[in-house]
Amino acid sequence: MKKLIGTMTAFAVALSASAALAGVYVSGPLPSEFAGGSISPNPDVNKSQGKGYKEGSKLAAGISKCLSKGAANFTKGKDTGVDTCINDTKKGVIPKFNSKISGISPSAPCSLGTASGPAVLAIVKGLNSSLYCQSPSGAFIDGAQF
Fold first, then answer.
1. Closest Cα to residue 132, out of 118, 143, 144, 120?
2. Of the candidates 16, 88, 96, 26, which has an alpha carbon nearest to the alpha carbon of residue 60?
3. Phi and psi dihedrals of 28, rounded to 5?
4. 36 — phi, psi (to 5°)?
5. Under a CB-based contact definition with an 8 Å cutoff, are residues 73 and 80 in contact?
6. Radius of gyration of the chain (CA)
């Protein structure tokens, strides 16, 4: 009997500690450091938004990798392969992204959709002139910044 009471007491203490450490779910507008956005009052929707955010990060990284490899191929006089890397129906980063996004459930009201791929592509491509030191005259002395 003493063993049962000891076990049940330890279990009760462990359960209360885990409940106390779990925290409180807070929803509402995100702080200004996020530049907008809001946490859904529904934790399942918030979890889906987090999954979408993760897939968006993977998409941006994948596009960046495609562009970097394409630039390396260009320097060797080869075909860049950028379009294939980004849009190929089997291995392209945008089709993979679209597949992952369509599988996230429940869908969040403001989540990334299949239209997000081209938008992220445009943003990442927009960084190329800074990353590859483009200068208006092509002389690399016009104050290009990193």
1. 144
2. 96
3. 125, -175
4. 115, 170
5. yes
6. 24
pLDDT tens for 58-98 read 999 999 999 999 999 999 999 999 999 999 999 999 999 99
Nearest in space to 41 (alpha carbons), one of 25, 21, 54, 19: 25
DSSP state of 108: P
Distance CA 60, CA 94 (A): 10
- C-alpha to C-alpha distance for 128 and 130, rounded to whole angstroms: 5
Q: Are strands 38-39 and 28-29 parallel, antiparallel or unpaired?
A: antiparallel
88-132 confidence digits (pLDDT tens): 999 999 999 999 988 887 766 666 677 888 999 999 998 888 877
DSSP secondary structure letter of residue 144: -
- Rounded to whole angstroms, how far apart are CA atoms 50 and 110? 12
Kindly report the pTM of this predicted structure. Answer: 0.71
Give the whole-angstrom CA distance, residue 108 versus residue 83: 30
- Cα separation, 51 vs 63, in Å, equals 18
